[in-house]
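User: For documentation purposes, I need each entry recorded in a consistent format: the amino acid sequence on its own, followed directly by the corresponding structure tokens. There are two entries in this batch. Please keep commentary to a minimum and don't merge the entries.

Assistant: Recorded as requested. Entry 1:
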Amino acid sequence: MIPIAKPSIAQEEIEAVKSVLMSGNIAQSKKVDEFEKQFADYIGTEHAISTSNGTTALHVALLSNGIGKGNEVITTSFTFVATANSVLFTGAKPVFVDIDPNSFNLDASLIEDKITEKTRAIMPVHLYGQAADLKAINEICEDHNLILIEDAAQAHGAKFDGKKVGSFGTGCFSFYPTKNMTTSEGGMITTNDKSVYEKARKYRNHGQEKRYYYDALGFNFRMTDICAAIGICQLKKLDGFNKTRQKNAEYFSKKLSKLDYLQCPKTTPNKEHVFHQYTLRIKDGRRDEVIQGLEKAGIGYGIYYPMPLHKQPLYIELGYKDKLIETEKAAGEVISIPVHPLLNKEEIERIVSFFEEFK
């Protein structure tokens, strides 16, 4: 079976974890500080604040930007549930905008129609590893005095106009094992805003600045030194991982773009796609046939995402009645195939051959 994703863990990560375990400092300590500094340097921001996972990174980022009850946050319905749920956690309301059918990201041309007096932030998702239209979104934020929060959970190292995502607004990353780099579980917030930095550090640690003195309602959202030790090793390899993903994706597109029944990912010169997922669109309602074929061939796949958030029972119960045409169409057509850096040449050829021979 060719897995859809596979974390690349080597001896360096194992030795790093052993070193932390032997030190006795296995909770949040010096390794977390080191990882935060290195990650901020990599993204190009003044600050980085680690958290326990990508969901808590989003939650804390929103709170640290003052998002709360009575506010609205414009985002996408075509994403993992944590994006919108993190808004709900603060007491605010997610407002969904349809996607661009080529990038699967927020259609910036539709955002201003959804802005109200309650809107406080726009939260694009850099889906599958490709940046949203940050130039247009940033201009909207500036024109309407809105906060930009980037859900970059799938886009470590991705760029827009040569600048890394997560450095345009407040960035949020996930280090889940399937991501382009991992800490096993973990998250990170990136920012140039000192106030956001200070609040985020407080919220992720029970609301305390000084030990046992609490001036805010906070959470236990800390990262451990064990996770940070893995992250330090993985960060050094991230650019190499991404280059291999890009090379695999380039080969897939070269071969599969000739096939009429599917559409390969579309990229633009101003965006560096890091291919967290290589996502095809299967035309003419044939996705179920393709899935059956992949299962028989022993090739892993994923559907990200089969049901948009505005169609989920939770959001229906909350009163959402959106009609997002491109979002709903994409949910019925997308399928992701393995693109991770541990694929070997034989596996890549097997995947290509399957689609070329599919009838």
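Entry 2:
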Amino acid sequence: MNRAVERPARSPEGGKRARTRKKLIEAAAAVIGEKGFDRASLEDIAARAGMTRGAVYGNFKNKEELFLALIETQWKPIVPPLEPGAGLKDQMRIVGRTVARVASERRRYAAIATAFQLYTLTHAPMQAKLTEKNAAVYRRIEKELVKAIPAKSFPMPAKQFVRVLDAVTTGLLFTYFQTPELITEDVFVAAFEALAR
């Protein structure tokens, strides 16, 4: 009698591969946070994860791809809980409070974020990838904003307003990382409220 060979069930989302990738990303965060991107080697990252360099290459094409995975998991867009129907100033107050809260949570990743910015400034292919990713994020945020806030309320076209929000957010975050005692929640809120005037 011919019997079908039973195959093992496929790994669920939290399977071995996902756990390995997560462990490598966490190790990359620690090593890059200590040494910066350029001085962090795949050997250092693999050793921190308790794995071999082959495990890194089995999950990521190269160090840049691992770095992108790290940024995508640790530095997601900030999504404030906007209140449909509220005025622009009230919405900006919500944005300011949300960014202030997230800033304190992200402070531990400040060195990684700074390393990523430096790397992006000096590597044109990464700039191109970041431009493409940010353009998609901007389109998504613009759609959400115009659902919650009437377009006539914006001090400029919504497409431009989203980019200004991102620039203000990035500037505030990095200034906060450097001098957290000077950039309080009141400063975050005032900066975003000013965009509603």
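Summary note for entry 2:
Residues 84 and 137 are 20 Å apart (CA to CA).
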